[in-house]
Amino acid sequence: MNLYNYNLLLVKDYLKFEQNSKLISNKDIVSLSKLNDQLTENNFKLFKELILDSIPKCNQTSAGDKYSVTTYRLTNSRMPSIEVCIENLSKYTKHAYLCIDPMQKTGNVHFRPFTFRTKIYVDAKLIEVYDLSEETANEHSESGISKSLLRKTDIEEKIILSTIFNDWLKELISVNYQLS
After folding, report:
1. Number of structural domains, the chain?
2. For the chain: N or C, fewer Cβ within 10 A?
3. Residue 7 has pLDDT above 60, yes or no
4. pTM for this predicted structure
C-alpha cells in the first residue's frame, strides 16, 4: 500500500469519529456537492480570518497580478509554529500550503508530518484542499507540478480533506495562533 492510500485510509477513519460519519454511505451527489460548497466557503472564511486579514496591505497590493511566492509563519508561544507559503498566481488565484514547521523543536513535533495544499479563489471566496500528504521528492512530475494537483479527486475525498482542514483551522484560531 502506497503512502497516499494509507493516508486516505487514515483520513476516512478520522471521519468515522466525527459528526459527518454518514458521508461515507451517502451517495447523493447533490447533498454531497452542497456540503462540499459549504466547506470550501467556510474554509475560505477561516483562512481569511487566520491568515489573509493579517497580511500587511502593502504585501498584498505589491504582488497584485504578478507571480510571487511568500512564506509566513503562524505562531503560538506554547505550540509548534505553522509554516504558510502563498504562491500568487494572479490577482484572484493563489496556491497555499500549510504545515507544522519542521525546524521547530517545540513539544513532540520534530518533523513535518503532513502538508495541506490548497487552491484559493479570492474572487469566489473559496478555498479547495487538493492534497494532504507528506512532502517527498517524487511527488512532482517532470514539469515540477505536483502529481496530486493533476489527479482528479472524487467528491467524498474532497469533503474528507476539507473537513480535516476546517477542523484544523478552527483549532488554530481557538488556541490563538497569530501571523508573525
Report:
1. 1
2. N
3. no
4. 0.72
Per-residue confidence (pLDDT) for residue 30, from 0 to 100: 81
Question: With contact defined as beta carbons under 8 Å apart, do 114 and 134 qualify?
Answer: yes
- Alpha-carbon distance of 45 to 87, in angstroms, equals 19
For the chain, the C-alpha Rg in angstroms (whole number) is 16
**Any idea how long the chain is?**
180
Question: Which grid cell sits at 112?
Answer: 513535518
pLDDT one-digit tens code per residue, 145-175: 455 545 556 888 899 999 999 999 999 999 9
Q: Which domain holds residue 143?
A: 3-179
Closest CA to 2 of 110, 148, 109: 148
Please list, in sequence order, all residues whose beta carbon lies within 8 angstroms of the beta carbon of residue 109, skipping any fewer than 6 positions away.
80, 100
